[in-house]
TrEMBL record:
Gene3D superfamilies: 3.90.550.20. It holds the Pfam family Gly_transf_sug. One of its GO terms (molecular function) is alpha-1,6-mannosyltransferase activity. One of its GO terms (cellular component) is mannan polymerase complex. GO terms for biological process: protein N-linked glycosylation. It comes from [Candida] arabinofermentans NRRL YB-2248. It comes from the Eukaryota. Transmembrane segments: none annotated. Belongs to the glycosyltransferase 32 family. Keywords: Transferase. This is Glycosyltransferase family 32 protein.
């Protein structure tokens, strides 16, 4: 019997020669006309729509997203649908649906409380190998005490990412979460998830999770390290495309080609085959920034050129980051 990952790849083949779909997807618990919808987010949602008018913008509820997943996956990979429906907490389901939506339809996913600084038409893409997955670094705490504060030495954001439909990384991620849902069903049901989501690291990430940023990060590293003869490209805008500060962190096995050390301190895009890793500024902005200046005409230079968006922490589920400084 095929594994879930194999069946996803078989029934929904990835087409690497096609471009990423011109879709923008945003998701919340309810529709935008519901009284409980976060009012402060609406202006930022509208900006995503208005400055990217060549994209199909979709703002959907969890219920609508779930119906979309059922219609698409139930006939051939029903286990994924069963796993989604088995989740006892709405936030767990919310995180899982991000990956499922983009796997099914492709495009960009953005949380509703994210401000879009630069129109998508100006975002980086490689002229050597077209990118089919773009992710950004959300935390990169280059300090000996990183483990006291963070889940991971370096992590990637699942609040905003871009991918071609049926990308094999997303197939692997969906299969892994589905496997956890079935093999740890009792533990998942017995856990008080409302309490768990109050226990956070310095990045605002829950210390215990299996649908959020941690599994997104771990699975991406696994995916990258399983690529055969992967092409590794750094985009240098000047003499250095990496911060020259010594990198500290856990030991890495000698046979592991890609780890936090590959991306820590990068100040320009880095690419492994069709996966583009953007620097921390791209989806986070500047630390302690109080004012955002839009870059609607792609005028910024240097490191600021790669500032595309950042979370504003406007919803009940937003990551509330602590302000920290590395030594």
């Amino acid at each position: 019997m095929f594994t879930i990952e194999s069946r996803l790849s078989y029934y929904f083949p990835f087409k690497p020669l096609e471009e990423i779909e011109n879709n923008i997807w945003q998701l919340w618990t309810v529709k935008s006309d519901d009284k409980s919808f976060p009012e402060d987010c609406k202006i930022h949602i509208e900006r995503w729509r208005s400055i990217n008018d060549n994209y199909n913008h979709n703002l959907i509820s969890i219920q609508e997203a779930e119906e979309m997943v059922v219609d698409y996956l139930r006939p051939n990979v029903p286990e994924v649908v069963d796993a989604l429906r088995s989740l006892p907490n709405e936030r767990l389901k919310f995180e899982f649906l991000k990956y499922l939506i983009i796997y099914i339809s492709g495009g960009l996913y953005s949380d509703i409380d994210t401000i879009n600084i630069k129109p998508l038409k100006y975002w980086y893409d490689s002229k050597i190998i077209g990118g089919k997955l773009m992710v950004g670094i959300t935390s990169d705490y280059n300090d000996l005490n990183w483990e006291k504060l963070y889940n991971r030495r370096l992590s990637f954001s699942n609040n905003l990412f871009k991918a071609k439909s049926h990308h094999p990384f997303l197939a692997k991620l969906i299969a892994r979460i589905t496997f956890i849902c079935f093999t740890q069903q009792d533990s998942i049901k017995e856990t008080n998830w409302d309490q768990v989501f109050q226990n956070l690291d310095a990045n605002g990430e829950p210390l215990i999770q299996f649908t959020g940023s941690s599994i997104f990060t771990d699975t991406l590293f696994e995916y990258l390290n399983n690529l055969n003869n992967a092409i590794f490209i750094r985009v240098a805008k000047n003499d250095r495309d990496k911060d020259l500060k010594p990198i500290v962190g856990p030991q890495i096995p000698e046979n592991q080609r890609f780890s936090y050390r590959s991306f820590s301190g990068i100040i320009a895009p880095t690419q492994i085959d069709d996966v583009i890793i953007m620097p921390q500024i791209t989806f986070n902005g500047f630390e302690n920034s109080q004012k955002d200046e839009y870059d609607d005409n792609d005028e910024k230079q240097g490191y600021e050129k790669f500032y595309y968006a950042r979370p504003l922490s406007l919803t009940i589920w937003s990551n509330k980051k602590q302000k920290l400084e590395s030594n």
